[in-house]
Write a structure and sequence with these properties.
Blueprint (H helix, E strand, L loop, with lengths): L48 H4 L7 H9 L5 H14 L1 H18 L1 H12 L9 E4 L4 E2 L5 E2 L3 E4 L3 E5 L6 H21 L8 H16 L4 H6 L9 H15 L7 H16 L11
Parallel strand pairs: 1-5
Antiparallel strand pairs: 2-3, 4-5
Length: about 280
Amino acid sequence: MATLPPSTSPPASSSFAPQGDTNQQRPQPQQSQQPSNSRPLPRFLENDPARTGYDPSLKWWMNYFKILTGQITPEGIEHYREDRYKANEARDCARCEADRDFLFKYSPVIRFLRDKVSALNGTLDETNVVCRRCPARVAEDGRVVRQGGGFSPDHGILICANEMRDRSHLEDTLAHEMVHAWDHLRWKVDWAGAKSLRHAACTEIRASMLSGECRWTREAMVRGNWKLTEQFQNCVRMRAIQSVMARPACRDDVHATKVVNEVWDSCFSDKRPFEEVYR
C-alpha cells in the first residue's frame, strides 16, 4: 500500500522527511475524491447476528465454540476476528514494537535498508515506524479487505500489529515498506499524479522481490504454493497486481495486470539498493 489509512495514521511529529534540504519538493497527498474513471468503492457489511450467527453479546469462548461447530458463517468469523483484535490491541502492539526494535538492532536486511535510506538523507526509526491495529472489512461480494502495513511520505511506515504472525512475518513486511521508502527518496515516486499507477506497480514489484516475502520457503510453508518453476516471479507479479488494484485510479484486475506488465521487465531486473535478491 502506498498510503496510511486516515484512521491509523501516526501523529504529524512522526513524519518521514529527508534530513537537510527541507525545501525539497514532495508528492502531494492523494485527493479525497474518487477519480471519475475508477471503479466504484465496495460496500462493506456490518455484523448481523441473525445472518452470521456471531453474537458479540456472548462470551468470546461461546462464539469460538459456535465457530468450531459450524454455527457461524465465514462473514461472522471475520467479525469475530475483528472484535478479538480490538480486545487484544494493546498486547499485539506491544509485541509488534518489541519485534520492531529487535529487527532494527539485529536483522541484516532491516539494518542494511535503514543505512541505505539514511544515505539518501532519510530517517526510519521508532518515531516513524509505528505499530497499530488495522481494521479489516468484509465486502458485499465476500472479499475481506485487510492490509499488513503501509508507507506514507508524510508519516512513515505503518505495521499492522494484529496481522503479524511472528517476527519473521514482521521482518518481511517492514523490509517491503522500507523498499518503498528508499524508492521514494531515490526516484521521487509519483504517488498520486498521472504516473501513479506505473510508479506504484514498479515499487510494488521491487518491494515484493527484495523483501523476502516471495521466497520459496514462505510460499511453500505459509501459502501452500509448492510449484518449483517460476513461483517467485508468479508471487511477485500477483502481489504487485493486487496492490495496484487497491488504488482508486485502477479500474479492475485487467487494468492492474496491464500496468504491471508494462513495467515488469525494467522493474523486476532492478535490484537496487541490493546487488542481488538475497532473501
